Predict the 3D structure of the following.
Amino acid sequence: MGQIRKRGGFYQIRYYRNGQRIEESTGKTRYDEARDLLRDREGDISKGVPITAKSTRLTFDDAVKDVINDYTINGKKSKDAVERRSKLHLTPVFGGRTLASITTADVRAFAAKRLDAKAAPAEINRELAILRRAFRLASEADKYHGRIPKIRLLQERNVRTGFVDDVMIDAILEHLPKALQPVVRFAYVTGWRVQSEILPIEWRNVDRKTGEVRLDPGTTKNQAGRVFPFTDTIRTLIDGLWAENEVLKKAGTIYPFVFHRNGRRIKNLRKSWEDACTAAGYPGKLLHDLRRSAVRNMERAGLSRSVAMQLTGHKTEAVYRRYAITSEADLREGVHRLNSIGSDAKRGIAG
């Protein structure tokens, strides 16, 4: 027979498996919640779910360390984001608690609290994914044999809407520092991610003879390599940057990166971008709008979807379709074509 008793501020449950007594802190301050957890444990035992005293003592803090170690071992660039989200949002709620004490209701309460704090569903989902990963890694490593709560992700309304066109780009570039202009122009043509894919490009990734820019496998978000043949715009950009590189060489500076600011690495241009957009009369535009705009331009130029996806690095059509944005100008152009067809038909009838 299981037992419930209060120790300090939390209830503790005691139950038996194959004659072995197991004591577990529930992390609960309410008797009915501790009773429900005890019933869950007794139900798992009756179903043959392996439960040991060690597995019930695994804490969230230890489990999330395994998640961070997993990201480190696999070289995932989002490790810093995992650490930040865990520290700021997950640990204040689940820190110090055992995994066994975390229930589906607790997870729902966490998500509701984050929504009340005006957190975006996408951000909450990234946090829930960390929690889910903690349970799965612990289970795979035989550190945890208890029940895994149902962790349902929130619906994300993430249809992409922002874009820029040729007129906007020209106006924004006028207000950008000269060193940043090639970065923005390159992003507008290729649709590559500015921070993680464009700024790290080195001259070894550029083949001026064949006219290609390459990203090495493992350096992109989906880990796949990528090739973008030169357009006229890109060739002009690369030629200009190569001339700057030659000047640096003659001055005794060997610099590997294609994009730079007076021979120094460009680490971030978000603030400069925001200021330029505001000065050009387009406040609120995002750097990521350049990626969306490149996809839209490829669609309008008639590139096949498979080719466009290879150029921009979209792995699934579902994600790519969110970027194929239709602007009001596109709609007007479409209606104009319909109007022309209607006029031609009328002329045919009249004739």
